[in-house]
Amino acid sequence: MASKTLTSKGDDAAASGVMDQRRRLLEGAILPTMVRLALPTILILAFQVLVGVAEVYFLSFLGTAALAGVSLAFPCITLMQMASGGGFGAGVSSAVARAVGAGREQDAEALVRNAIVLALALGLITTTAEALGARPLFRAMGGSGAALQTASAYADVVMGVGAVLIWVVNLLTAALRGAGDTASAAVVTLLGGLVALPLSPLLIFGLGPVPAFGVVGAGMALLAYYAAALAFLLAHFRSLRCPLRLRLNAPWLDRRLIGDVLAVGGLAALGAATPNLSIGLATAAVGAFGVDAIAGYGLAMRLDFAMTPLLFGLGVGVMVFVGANVGAGRWRRAERAMWLGVLLGAGCAELIGLVVAMFPNLWLGLFTRNPAALAVGASCFRCVGPLYGVNAATMLVSFAAQGAGRALRPLIARVLQLLVGSVGGLIGVIWFRVDVGGLFLIVALGIVVAFPVVATALHRPTRCVKVA
User: Fold this and answer.
1) What is d(CA 229, CA 246) in angstroms, rounded to the nearest whole number?
2) Residues 127, 163: contact at Cβ < 8 Å?
3) Which of 250, 271, 280, 363 keeps 20 to 30 A from 336, CA to CA?
4) Domain coordinates of the chain in residue numbers?
């Protein structure tokens, strides 16, 4: 009897948490509510990026070959991260947000279990793909010698051993964000980062009885990060504080809910894949200019990764807000949220882009003194940096569209950017012998031509914010 009473109290607390969050999303002031949703994600992801930047800094002591190897693996690992956190994760967040907005609390909780099943399947697919294709892919991207060995070893740990763990953590975190519990989702990152930050140099360089694992040690520290995050998530989903409960004795697979996730998540994953595929193809094109060039381009691309907290955090706020209001039929309120998010995020990104375009060594000089690497990174910043705001606007409109259950138009924009910027750049290097500056101008052109596809959504946002 006592157990049943406790369960009933837990159910009441979870339902109350969901309804309180629904009320804030549908009736609260737009900007403060969006900031409250976005700020925990922004702050904690900034800490996560700090961990990633620190890892690159530690690896820089191993030499240019180590940096080049990690740069080769970086697009693939980022692809997995974005496909899980920003692709299928967006599908989970969107489905949960729309369920909360429509008052379907049972569906919102069932989506947690379905997300775990989906994560296990996609994690195993990722592991298989890495085992079969990582090394040939890195070789095709220009990797050879020590750089190729480094890239393969790093990917074997992160994508081979850790793929399932990463997928489960990212989809469970996405479910929390969809329910508006961005604070707990942010704590996940904080706890993992507190584990990884001291472990990374320890496992890379060794100390006392701990041997030096080199680049592999950096991958091991990353997996420790996700293991700590998973332990917290499982405990949180079983606690009374969580707005969504993980009920082990309920059905784990619902085709309708899986379909709801995949309808957005499948297209969003393709959309999330295209920027990383773009980086991979551009890295292959840069590889024609040597290992130092790969290292310089990889460091420049790390700044894109460093901007993730701001854009992803704000995008999550936009997506959850739009999703909940679309679920409740409040489209005009969703439109206003989309506009505020786009203007705020694009403005901040443009400021950062202009600074690094004028002073590229403020970033690049943190990691290397290699003249060739610095020259390539600076060329990238001068060509692409002034367009950071345009790229951010495309990204934030995509989040709004995904929140509304519509992911096709953002996918078209990203595919166009891939074809013009990266495929075009690779063709330019191979067939027309353009130099590295010309390559980055083509990459910049891809950003420019992609924007009009989503700009129509900005002018007529109701086409993005309607119920799927």
Assistant:
1) 16
2) yes
3) 271
4) 39-463
